[in-house]
Write a structure and sequence with these properties.
Helix content: 40-55%
Number of helices: 10
Strand order of the largest sheet: 1-5-6-4-2-3
CATH class of the largest domain: Alpha Beta
Low-confidence stretches: 1-5, 46-59
Mean pLDDT: 93
Number of strands: 10
CATH topology of the largest domain: Elastase, domain 1
Number of domains: 2
CATH architecture of the largest domain: Roll
Length: 350
């Protein structure tokens, strides 16, 4: 498969880091500024193929993960030193082992639930680099691989701690190889939302949680205990994930009435993603059971069905979920749940 164009996609939005960069805490401000500088460099850096990603090199066995974890040792040269490859024993470094396990958990969801072999559907090897830079407060997908920082231990902890962060970033690769949604404005917010959807599904599948049992939080466990917040985002209640003197307040809307028009953050991709996020949460909980079984299947069908344009707006995506629900399930409760969910967030489906 020919790789699609890629975008630098990070879990922590720039508006949050910019807010932290003005903190009265010198350590917090310095770490945020360093992260912003590193992100700017990574965003413009030309991605080079990683070892083992050339089209002629396939995984040893189809339908099985092919993982490699590298250690940047607080540097920024990617990928770093190879420290664990597929099938090798766990190392003494818990961060390495969590990255390896998170790559596997994401592979398992896509393969076992959707029959999708890795994030490209064709067995793409999965690579991750850990211990990126010093006090780096982010994790990102750069079009070829995952990269994780250790956090600053003031606001952010190790970015391999929440498995949904790993699933979220790898899902940017899934989008890159499927609908290839442009990373700007509403299509960019959909890109971010799809990563939150599948990142949440990775966590739910790994923990055996039903839609009712799931917390629907993205990045729960990432914040330092002193931070007044539960996660980076909430799909259940966008805008409530954090409210902290240093972090500020979660700006995500849950309805089109509160859509944020901004030139920052690629047109608010991390902010307005709260609207389609909430629609998925509503559809999944309305249907009940395991969210990956029906709601997740509908979203997967939309992403792989070939009907979305890269510039898709919320209403186009919503209409596509209705069509996908009808194609797979007919005019039953699935299509009604999808229609009800989009109506609740103010997005038309026709």
């Amino acid at each position: 498969m020919t790789p699609h164009a890629h975008a630098f996609c990070s879990i922590v939005p720039p508006h949050l880091l910019e807010h932290l960069a003005h903190s009265s805490n010198p350590a917090v401000a310095a770490a945020a500024r360093r992260t912003l500088i590193a992100d700017a460099s990574a965003r413009t850096f030309r991605v080079l193929p990683l070892p083992g990603t050339a089209p002629t090199l396939a995984p040893a066995e189809a339908g099985r993960p092919h993982r490699t974890v590298y250690d940047c040792r607080q540097g920024t040269d990617l990928p770093g030193e190879r420290v664990r490859a597929e099938g090798e024993e766990a190392t003494a470094d818990a961060t390495v082992n969590r990255a390896y396990a998170g790559l596997g958990a994401t592979f398992d969801l896509f393969m076992n639930v959707f029959g999708h072999d890795s994030i490209d559907g064709a067995g793409l090897p999965l690579h991750a680099s850990v211990h990126y830079d010093e006090n780096y407060g982010n994790a990102f997908w750069n079009g070829e691989q995952m990269v994780f920082g250790d956090g600053d231990d003031e606001i952010f902890l190790d970015f391999t701690l929440p498995v949904d962060v790993i699933g979220h970033e790898l899902a940017h690769g899934f989008t890159q190889y499927s609908a290839n949604l442009e990373y700007f404005s509403q299509s960019g917010a959909l890109n971010e939302s799809v990563s939150d959807v599948f990142g949440s599904l990775v966590k739910q599948y790994a923990h055996g949680q039903s839609a009712e049992q799931a917390d629907w939080l993205i990045g729960e466990g990432l914040f330092h205990p002193n931070v007044q917040g539960t996660a980076l985002r909430s799909m259940k209640a966008p805008g409530t994930a954090y409210d902290d003197d240093v972090l500020g307040k979660d700006p995500q809307p849950a309805h089109m009435d509160d859509y944020v028009r901004t030139g920052r953050d690629n047109g608010g991709v991390h902010i307005n993603s709260g609207i389609p996020n909430h629609a998925f949460y509503l559809a999944a909980t309305e249907l009940g059971g395991n969210a990956w079984d029906r709601a997740g299947r509908i979203w997967y069908d939309v992403m792989t069905g070939g009907t979305l344009t890269p510039e898709a707006r919320f209403s186009e995506f919503a209409a596509a979920t209705v069509a996908a629900a009808r194609a797979r399930y007919g005019d039953g409760e699935e299509i009604q749940a999808v229609l009800k969910a989009w109506a609740a967030v103010g997005v038309p489906t026709d």
